[in-house]
ABC transporter ATPase
Amino acid sequence: MWIDFDKLPDQARVWVYQANRPLSDDEVTDIQQALRSALAQWAAHGQPLLASAEVVANRFVVVAVDEGYNLPSGCSIDSSVRTLQAIGQQIGQGIDFFDRSAALQTAEGHVQTVALPDIKAAVAVGSLTPNTIVFNTLVKTKEEYSANWTVRAADSWLKRYFKNVTA
């Protein structure tokens, strides 16, 4: 069952999917409509899940479910992954919601990504510093998403790349 994202409890479980490229406003609209339809039917073992999603910064899809209403199962989570894959194929133009690059926030507020093999080089040339703001795609709850969606790179999983760099 669909619910507005802001009506979900802070303890709602979230999953963040990162697109491999910026999404146009029209694509965001199409994705939101497809997600609303899919999540309205989302269930675990025949029990409806109370869920929502939002597209953030024309780059991320945040899916959330109220585990206090009904718990998602492994099969239902797999189904949500297949839904995102299908949406990416339907919208077309090479949308892959499973990009694992590090996502940085530019000074202008845009999203810039650095491929995992290029992180050390980005640190070496100073384009990725301990104070660079990054999108924390590893958040697990709505509360954590609200509080820690953007963090300093030194406070994220990227911190291991700065052990020899001073903040």
The chain is about 30% helix and 20% strand. The longest strand covers residues 13-18. The two ends are 45 Å apart (CA to CA). The CA atoms of residues 16 and 62 lie 5 Å apart.
